[in-house]
Amino acid sequence: MPRANKINKRLKQLLPEVQSELIFNNLYQLTVAVILSAQTTDVAVNKVTPGLFERFPDFFALAAADYKELKDIIKTIGLAPSKAKNLIALSKKLISEKEGEIIPDFDYLLTLPGVGPKTANVILSEGFAIPRIAVDTHVLRVANRLQLAVGSNPRKIEHQLCDLYPPREWHQLHLRLVLFGRYYCKAKKPRCNICPLTAFCQYYTNYSPEK
């Protein structure tokens, strides 16, 4: 897998220090922030979470939240109505079944309202230091463009990436792919002129006007 290793090496050179751009201080805040981040930006989430966490500091408070009040607090982010419902339902389920605690169990996390494979993997990786590769739109796009993986199914992309790299690389690789997709390999107008990975890139070879 020298090609995959070369790509990872260049990503490390481009983005040597990486961390999640979501702001959180504990598992509760991480879980809420990741759920809120679906189909919106981390910047938008970080604007609403300080007020949200002050008003509802844990799952017990969130379980008792008034739906309309919660929806109003997060109204500036995408899918606010459904996210508000999911957060309240998730909190009630955790209190009923797990004493209000998030546990490091992928299958159980998937049973929580608003939690899909990407969210579950982020919780495990960021919250419990369990090696995972969470596949969002950025990771999926970059993986396909660099031909590290092929397809549109996030779970299949996840498995292909995990097969390419050892678990010790997964957490940082996920973050680098996210940030690379967010700031360099954008969906529209990718910054091919400053990209160090064009030699590996299918998009650059076939479509980029920068060639």
Order of helices and strands: HHHHHHHHHHHH
CATH class of the largest domain: Mainly Alpha
Work out the helicity level: 55-70%
**Low-pLDDT stretches:** none
Task: Provide the domain count.
Answer: 2
How many DSSP helices? 12
Q: What's the mean pLDDT score?
A: 96
> Into which percentage range does the β-strand content fall?
under 5%
Number of strands: 0
Annotated CATH architecture of the largest domain: Orthogonal Bundle
Round the Cα radius of gyration to an integer and report it. Answer: 18 Å
Question: How would you summarize this macromolecular structure in one to three sentences?
Answer:
The protein has helices at 2-14, 27-36, 42-55, 59-63, 67-73, 80-98, 106-109, 117-128, 137-145, 154-164, 167-183, 202-206. With 211 residues, the chain is an all-alpha fold. Helix 2 runs antiparallel to helix 8 (117-128), helix 5 crosses helix 6 (80-98) and helix 9 (137-145) crosses helix 11 (167-183).
